[in-house]
Each structure stands twice: as C-alpha cells, then as structure tokens.
Amino acid sequence: MKHSILSANGLCKSFAHNGGQVHVLSQVDLELYERDFTVIMGASGSGKSTLLYALSGMDQATAGQVMYGGENIVDAVEKRLASLRHSDFGFIFQQMHLVSNLSLLENIVVPGYLNKKVSVNQVKARAEELLQMMGLSHIKSHLPSQVSGGEQQRCAIARAVINNPKLLFADEPTGALNRKNTTEVLNLLTDLNQSGQSILMVTHDIRAALRATRLLYLEDGKIVGDLPLPDYSLEEEKSREAQVNAWLSAMEW
Amino acid sequence: MEIFTLLKANIRYKKGSFISIVLLMIIIAMSLTTILSVKENCKNSHETALDEVNAGNITTFISTRRLTEELIHSVENHPLVEKMERYAAVCTDEAESGENSYGNPWLMTKLRSGYKLYNDDLTASEKEMPSLNQGEIYITQGVATRLECQKGDTIKISTIGGKYNFKVSGIFVEPMFGSSTIGWKQLFISDKDFEQMLKDCKDNETEEHYSDFQIVQLYKEKNCKLSDGQFRRKLNLDTGIINNSSGSLTRDMSIRYTNIFSDIILSVLMVFVIFLFIIVLIVMGHSISTGVEMEYVNLGILKSQGFTKGKIRTVWFLQYFLAQFTGTVIGMLLTAPLIQMLGNVFQPITGIIAGKDISFLKINLVMLSTLLISGILIFTMTIKLNKISPVRAISGGHSDIYFDSRIKAPVCKKGLLGSLALRQLTSSKRSYIGTVLIVSILVFFMMTITILGNIVDSKSAVEAMGAIYTECDITFQDYNPDDELLKSIEKVVEKYSPIEKSYYMSGIDLSVNGEEIHCQIQKNPEVITAAKGRVPLYDNEIAITELLGEELDLKMGDAVTVAYMDKKDKYIISGIYQSMQDAGLEFMMPLTGAEKIGISYITFARYSLSIPEKAREVTDALNDSFSDILVAENGTEGNVMENTYVIAINVMKGVIFSFSILFALLVAMMTCSKIFLQEKKDIGIYKAIGFTSAQLRLQFAFRFFIIALAGSVLGTILSITLSRHLLNIVLRKMGITNLVARFTTTTIVVPAALISICFFLFAYLVSRKVKQVEVWELMTE
User: Fold this and answer.
1) Could you tell me if A83 lies within 8 Å of chain B, comparing CB atoms?
2) How far is CA A155 from CA A98, A195, B417, B612, B635, in A?
3) How many CB atoms lie within 10 A of CB B454?
4) Structural domains of chain A, count
5) Which of B416, B681, B690 is closest, CB to CB, to A85?
6) How far apart are the CA of B292 and the nearest CA of chain A, in angstroms?
7) What are the angstrom distances between the C-alpha of A186 and each of A172, A182, A203, B350?
8) Which of B399, B424, B693 sits opposite A101 (nearest CB)?
9) Residue ranges, chain A, pLDDT below 70
10) In a domain, A178, yes or no
11) Is the pTM of this model over 0.95?
12) Residue B620 confidence (pLDDT)
C-alpha cells in the first residue's frame, strides 16, 4: 500500500499574454506517492516544468489545490513556503544554479544551516557524507566556476538533499550535461530513490525516464498518460527502454 | 529607426537610472540657475536703484565748515567732474529704539525725490512716497535691522542740539548706504523737523563738536574712462575733497559692500553645486561602467545581429545624455520660486528688492558647459562598448565580472545572513569596490559640505567680509603692553575658554605714497589670511586690500613709501587681503615694520574664544584683574545684526543639507538598484533553498550598510586629508579667503552616519523587489 505524499486537485496555471490568457495547466489532478521516482514527460511547452514549480510551491497556481501533509500549499504564506523549501522539499535545476561565490561545500551546508533542528556539526557531517557520495570530496573547496557541469549538478543534488527532504523535485537535471555526466547524475538519483527518497522529475530525456518507477505524460497542460514501472535495474534496462518507448509512442511523443 | 527602438527599450529597462539622473540634474540645474540669477538680480537691482535715486559716482559727507567756497569751486570746475550736487544733513550722536541703540553717526536729511518706499511686508515698493509730517521719519532697511524696529515704532535721535522722538512712517529703499553691511545711514525727516534740528545743532555746536554736514554727490564726466575709485583718487589729489570729508563711498564700493554677504553665501552655494555636479558625473560613470558589464551578453547579441559599435554607443550616449538634458531643462523651468525665495532672504541685508528675473544667457552658457562635460564623460565611458566581442559575449558572457575573487570569510550558521552578506561583498570586488568608492566620494563631499556649512556661521561670514570678529575685545588705556603682560592676560582668558585666535593690533592713519590711508598694525600678522600672495611677515612688507590697490594703482610686488610724522621707509606689497575698515581702503603691516617708522605700540588685544558663551565671564575677569590698564568688552553683545546673517546662513545650510540628503538617497537608490539587478539570480537561488524574502532583504540591506561603513571610513580619511585644501582652493577662486575649515565631531559623525543609514534604509527599500523575484525565473524551458 503506497502512501500519498503530495496531491494536486484541479490545478490550473494561466498567464496573461497579449491581452488574453494562456492556460498552461488545465485542471490537473495528481497524486504522488512516497518512495516513488515519478518522471513527467511531454513535448516542449506542454507545461511539465510549470507543473513541477506549481507542485513544489515555487510558483503559485492560478486555481486548484496542492495538498501536502493536509495543508494546501497554494494558500501558504511566503514564510511557510520558505520553511517547506529548506525542510521538506529539495529542488534541482537544469542549470544547477549554485551560488557562484560559495564553494561546493558551502553551497551544500547553507540550506542545512537554515534548518533550526539540526546542529552545525550534524550539517557538516551530513555534507561530508553527501560529498563523499557524490564524489566531490576532493573538490569541496572549489567554486562552482572551477568544476565541470556534472560536478556542479552533483553538488546541486547534494544541496537539495542536505535536509533529507520528503520530496525531491528535479527540473531537467541532465538537460545541460554530457552523456557521461548524465549517467552519473541519473545513477545518483536512482541510488537516492532506492534508498527511500521520493523524487518528482521533469525530463524529455528517454535515458532519464528509464529511471522512473512511474511515468506521467503531459499534453497541453493535462496528464494524459500514467505508466507504473518496477524499480530500475541496469540488467533490465533494454526491456524497460522498449516498454517506455512503446508507451511514449502511444502518447504520440 | 533601430537606434530609436533600442533607445526606447533601454530607457524603459533602466527607467530607475534614467529617472535618478533626471532628478539629480534637476537639482543641479535648479541650484545653478537660482544662484546665477540671484547674483545677477542683486547686482542689477542695485544698479537700477542707484540710477533711480541718481546716485553720484562718489557720495561723500563733509562738515559744512570744511566745505569752503574755494573747495566747491575747485571740485565743480574739475575737468573730470560733470556736476556736483549737495544737500544739508545733520549728523546724529546716537539713535535708540526700544532696547536697542546705535552710536555711530547717521545723517538726517530732508525727504528727497527719486527714493521709493517699501510696502508693509517689504516685498515691493509703493508707487508714491508721501511727504512727511512733523515727528515722522523714514528709515532704511539697515536702520530697521540694526534697531530692530518697524513702521509705527518710535526712534529717539540724539544730536548735540537735543533729543528728538520720531515715529517710523515707513522704510525706504536706500541703495547707496542702505545695506546693513555699510555703517553710514541716511534718514528722512520733514522739512520743518530738519530745520529745527539744524538750528538746535548750530546753536549748541562748539569748535570740536558739530553736526552741520553736507552730503555731496559727485558725478564723473561722461567721457571719463576712470573707475570710480580712480576718479575719487584723482579728484582728491587735485582738490582734497576726500581728505576734507568725514566719509566717502563710491558707487562701485556701495555695490560691492551691499552685496558682499549675498556674494559670499551664493559663492559657497556655487561651490556646493560644483561638488554635486562632480558626484553626478561619478555616479553616471559608475552606472555606465556597471551597465556595460551587466548587459555584456545582450550587447554581444546586438553586435552579432549587425549593430555596429558606433550605433550601440550612440544609443548609450543618447540614453544618458537625454536624462541629463531632460533634468537640466526641467530644473531650469522650476527655478522661479527659488529665485524669489533666495532673493527675499538677502533683502533685509542688502536693503534692495532683488528682481525675480532668470538670467537666461549666462545660465544657458553654464548649462551648456555642464552638458558638454557630461557628454565628454559619457563618450569616454562608452568606449568600453567597442571592445565587446560578440562571440565571447554570447558564449558565457563576461565571466570574470561576478565573483572574480574570494576572501575566505567563513559562512557560519550563527549569523548566517551576516556571513553570507560578507561573502557576497568579498567575492565581487569590482561591483562593490566601485560602490565603496562612490560612497566614499559621497561621504567626502558630504563632509566637505558639512565643513562648508559649519565654517559659514555668522562669525566666519563676518570674518569672510573682512571684519575681525572676536568675543573678547580689549582696549589698552594709554598703555603699551609687553609680552609678559599679554601672557598674563592670555592666562586669565584661558581659565574660562581656550583661545582660538588672538589679535594684538593698533590702527592708525599713515601716508602711503602721500595718501592718508588707515593702517592695521598686527603684532602677529599670520592670524590674518591673505587673498592673494601672503600676509606681511617681515619688517619691509605690507599687505593692501584690493580696493586700495585699485585706488592707488598698486599691485603685489610694488614698492611703496609709508610715512608717519617725519619718518618714512620703503615697503614691498607682499599680498592682498580683505578688510571692511574704512570701506575697504586699508593696508596692513607687522608691528616690526611699523617700528621702523616710529610706531612701536599696540592699542587693542582681541580674542576669539573656543567657548563663545564664556565671553561675559572672560571680560569681567579681565576688567577685575587689569582695571587700571585696560577695558575689556564682550564683542558679541548687542550685535543684533547677527540675526539677519544667521537667517541667511541657515537658509544656505538648509539648502545644502536637504540637497545633500536628497543626493545621498538618489545615489543610494541608483547604486542599490544596479547591484540588485546583478544579483537577481542569486536571490532566486537563495529563495529556492528556503530563504525568506525578509531574510534576503535584510541581508541585502546589511551588505549596503557594510559598504556604506567602508565607504564612510575611506571618505573620512579622504576628507581629513583633502577637504581643507579643496575648500581653500575653491573658495579662494570665488574670492573668499577668511573662512577656515575646522573638523568637529559633527563634521565627521553626521555625514558618515547619515550616509550609512541612508544606504541601509534605501537598500532595504530597493530590496522590496526581492519579493517580486520568483523562483520559477530559474526555470529553463
């Protein structure tokens, strides 16, 4: 029996454009579950990232609800949203968005310091552990501009999970990476998921989609496909790829 | 067309900077237009008023008994004299009104035509000046200020013939002696009162004490090319009219002394505006410089799309120049009320109703010059645009712009916001050093301006006009004090207050190249400030006033013969100084120099006290301790004139400080906005990892507080090192020499605190935009 972690009911997002309204999300209903690695796919402009930002409270929905722990975060005030961002949610961007004047270690510890329940030593220990896990220990004092894109993204992942978030949001985390770095980042995300981390990721990369335990397909702001998948394993990757490709073809991707 | 489109887009995108530059230029243009117009109006109004009363090139008052027929004949027939007019006057001994009295002689005359009466609120003149009834008097603005009286009050006039009470029927515009900066005064009474007063005086006059005078107006021949001063000298040499007079004033001297105070205040304001303009140039330079860095990628894109560097530069040039031009035009249009206000401030001092005209020609020239200077700066600063390579710009931009160095200031959980603010500071040297420099320059100028405001108090303003203003004035009673006595006197004074300046001096009329001129003999001449050259320090040197130089056709380096009784010696003119004694016709020599011609005494000691409030106690103590040899007086008592100056000075300070604060705010706003744009992405990132807007705003504002503090320290060092020299140089250029820059706690603390707080508050205000930064702006799709 899967436990729901976050749900969306009738979620809408519109933008004003040329005096009219562009509806990016239309009445999205969605339930996300603990320990799932949910991946949202869809064509460019289908509203994938908009949905991710609306669900994470990074952007405010025009209408509808996003329920998290019994609370509709669409109505949450800024302070509560900030608290959710550093304690309950983690976020990974396509362009990494590390603070350029902080070292990799500092980028990781700063959100940890925002968490009042954890001591400095605990944050530092956790950061070291994550640096080890991400293979960044040797360059932890480097600035983001001094490391590769893959290393930056691994650092961004470590930053996102420093506070052990309940849900990790990832917006095309491999979109700006080469093949080698993409594989490294996906392996890390897979490892995190398999160790219990719930993840919601947006991608249009089929290799990233293969890591999912659940695939959602978004078209014109609506979820039109939902494919459950077993946990990822390298051995079954080929058959999984065929299954996902077939499903995506059915979705006219 | 493409230039116009880009220009429109740029102005829209950077409307904050555009508006700020417009506002800064409005202030500059308003101030410059006001100062130049008021200066011009004061002079023009005075000249018009002199013409209206048909004032002569020389006005002199001379005892009737000394104005012999022979003298009249020689003056009237002098080839340089077009005409000579004279009318009778009675010289007063004292005038009183209420609790105020004045002992210098004033001249009572019959009502004369051509003069104008002020309206009741002293803002304009009446069309007619009604004749006076017995017991009525018309007074000048200077008399009203001096005696603190107004229409309807009673003035008691004492002469050798008796005491007379007059009711003030009005205040009239008296351009020749009307200013409160000139001691002589002319008052109108009815014909009957005058005849009676004259008769009484004649009945009571003695050989030594008489009041029967003539006011003589002397007019130059139309073709006479001599200045008024030269005309006076030539006429005096040929006829002796001035030697026989009790006082004389040329038209030029009247204009100079009537406007001396307003000229000083306006010159100080002018210096202030020049400083403000320098700040505008610095801020604009900084804005262009950071703007180029921030828009590196966009500029690269434009170049890749075929925009030439010339076109891009033209857009940038126009964008800044348009802001300057708009501000200048609006500022000039908004000037009218300020001109009237400032003109009214000086009216009680000059006694002249200043015009309200805007002096367009002069202002247009000055404003064109400021625009030209700005244009050159913008042109120079935009040279950077030429160097942008499209490929480099697009492929990652100007990578070393942001966070190009890092000082390892740790990021800690405790004081997280502070440590992050510090990191942000230490990691972006270009942006922040630029801002620190802007702040330091602002603080430097604010401090310089505060010093300027502080030195122009009523005391130094009077000193700047050439008068010696001291709190404790000692006259030795037939006693020549030696150094030991002077030291004992100083000891007594210092029991109450430190001595800021001490003058040991005497005054005597000496012959300079055969002319009787008042000489100020100083034991320590270095206490006087020279306007040009230096004060006379050696026994063969003298200094002269500019007016005396003009009068006797002398300049620095010239040798003159100074004589006293049967002794004479040659002296070199070492410098020019300012004095109001004898309406500016004076020279100065050191006591050592005077000793060469037999003058070896001083008659006055004057002390400027650090604690002026102690003046009464000091004089009492001196009178008690040295009662047999000296009389000490409190120099500040009964000086009602001070109030008039204080009002004008306070207006000037008000203008300086309010404009300074406005400037600080605008500069803070511009700088903060620029940095905010630079750091918008980081703010988004911090929000995404859980910082609240309030935390980020505080961090942003705190950072600017640190910048402002650093800038303040640098500005303070700059100010302590340079302000005094800068002020001296600039004020001297403006002809003001006697102002001495002093640093006080207020001078240092107020500007630094004001700037730091302004920056903190305005950074906090600007950072309200943090709320508008949405994390989804980090989204890539």
Assistant:
1) yes
2) 8, 18, 22, 69, 77
3) 18
4) 1
5) B690
6) 20
7) 11, 6, 12, 86
8) B424
9) none
10) no
11) no
12) 92
